[in-house]
From TrEMBL:
One of its GO terms (cellular component) is endoplasmic reticulum. Pfam families: TMTC_DUF1736, TPR_11, TPR_16. Belongs to the TMTC family. Its main location: endoplasmic reticulum. Its EC number is 2.4.1.109. Residues 311-383 form the DUF1736 domain. This is dolichyl-phosphate-mannose--protein mannosyltransferase. It is an enzyme of class 2 (transferase). SMART domains: TPR. TPR repeats lie at residues 499-532, 533-566, 601-634, 703-736.
Amino acid sequence: QIFNQHNAEAPNLEQALRRMAQMEPNLDHDVSWFHLPSYWAKMVVALISFLCFANSYDGDFVFDDSEAIINNKDLRAETPLGDLWYHDFWGSKLSSNTSHKSYRPLTVLTFRINYLFAGGFYPVGFHVINIILHCAISVLMVDVFSILLGGLQFSNKGRRLNLAPKSSLLAALLFAVHPVHTECVAGIVGRADLLCALFFLLSFLGYCKAFRENKEGHTFSVFWVLVSVILGAIAMLCKEQGITILGLNAVFDALVINKINLLELIRKLLYKDKSLENAGLLRKGLLFRITLLMCGGAGILYIRWRIMGTGPPAFTEVDNPASFADSLFVRAINYNYYYSLNAWLLLCPWWLCFDWSMGCIPLIKSVSDWRIIALAALWFCLIGLICQALCSEDSHKRRILTLGLGFLIIPFLPASNLFFRVGFVIAERVIYLPSIGYCILFTYGFSLLSKQAKKKKILAVAVLGILLINVMRCVLRSSQWRSEEQLFRSALSVCPLNAKVHYNVGKNLADKGNQSAAIKYYREAVRLNPKYVHAMNNLGNILKERNELHEAEELLSLAVQIQPDFAAAWMNLGIVQNSLRRFEEAEQSYWTAIKHRKKYPDCYYNLGRLYADLNRHIDALNAWRNATVLKPEHSLAWNNMIILLDNTGNLAQAEAVGREALELIPNDHSLMFSLANVLGKSQKYKESEALFLKAIKANPNAASYHGNLAVLYHRWGNLDLAKKHYEVSLKLDPVAPGTKENYNLLRRKLEQLQKKGS
């Protein structure tokens, strides 16, 4: 509905327009709900959306946050800003074969700003921004729903009228408190969805502004249509779904601005009716605006294609098993089953999980599978709604149902597997935008029930109860997202067949030092998915540390057999083979790892250790030098170079390497200690003493630091200071090798000096 006024003499235009609107069907006539002024409605929505997720503000970095934020070099100041436009969401080059092609430079830019303002990786600032974004989006939803549910109408002053204040408030509250949004708000990586939604809504509202009559009397503004396209492009640069707003703007234009009856239009197209103009296709500049939207969308997609290239993203079968099924029937059945599960999460968001892959949802392989019922139920409901949206004689009903289905389905299309393979089975974050359509349909259904119900207050209380339950569920789910331990354990009851859930619980336990419990979960992950190479690798690592070398070797050998380019597993296999003194096999494993990952400093470090054990000193030094070239802050490689050169009598070279290392890592106390030992042997006692004292200040409880400083003082002739530091060293480590013997020698020497003096 859009009305434009050309009579400037009308004294009470706004009231007249409201009366005209009241003559048409209006959801608020039937909805038994609170009527609040626009300002207060937005305040209530903002407050409730804040209360739902406020307890996530001090959560940790969890799950994907590690890769997208902590390990993402694009957040650091030393990375040029221009690189953000050529890297994916995870910091990898878009041209890389391993890139997921998720192109979200504006989202990464906000992470970078967060990082710079916080002065490091402090999650509070990241979480606070996410909460604020969700509150802002929920407030915008009041305006969006007022248009979608009540129509678009302006006063003579150009102010948009809210013709459905009660319905828009209810729909906005449903959106604000939906528990499925928790992943987007409490998980920092969900910022991509939040920013995308923000600009998605701004694009829609901008498009609506295009129909506010200007002073020249034009019925629409090309400027605001172009602004809408630009905002859609910004939404896409935050997340791929943003591009779908251009399609939704076109649907809105056709249904609301031009009041096209889709069924009538289809009939005229089928029968080649020459009166298409009367159907509204060419009226009011619709064709021109659609052309602008299409050209804008095509231009955006072309630029994105030029930046990211034509190569598809690299996903594995465990990420999305249905997409790897050989049978078209199996693929189609399972895709539709996934759609039904997404719909169920909107209807009943009680069973939520951070990851739905890896066997969480077994494939449907036969029509005898009882889960086919879910597909039938989904399509029964969708077909019923589509028929009503097309065939109903009530234009108001047609408009709301079509808009509801449009906002439900169109933003979901990029995640549907229809156009390209996606890297997940179900992802709660991708339902953030489609939930707008769900809220429209729920509110419309509530209005129909209210119209029929004799006791409308009971129905209103029931809806209030749903809102309250959702608020409580949001609070509970937000608390689970505060730490990885709670998040991963919460998934065990929802997806007990998900190998990744068990893997992540095990990894969390291993990081906390609970290796025995971690082994249990890693074994279960491998049992559920016998090809889960990452679980095999981590389990093999723990067994290696527990000196269970033969089982560790079996697991790691199987991992590289399943995935021959798994560089980390090759390196760990080399470490195990080295421990088993099978040096030739270990060397071959290390070089295979380096073959598959050219820049692998840790592997060069371990290769250097192997060469050192074989007394191949030149090869060892070269390997460690390669490690430090690839990773200048690789302290262990620097230390081993210094120690090897020291032990082989190359004191000048050891000193040079030590000084070079300290220039790169000036606060590393282990390097200070190693260089201090070299300087002491070179009789540079004063400089050696300064470095020992600095190392001790950084790590006062290291017995070897005190013991070697005591040896320095012993050589230097400062016997009292030597005695003091020997005693400190022995107090910290009574069985320190050599320290007790040196201390006894010093005591005898002191006793002899005392006898001579007496």
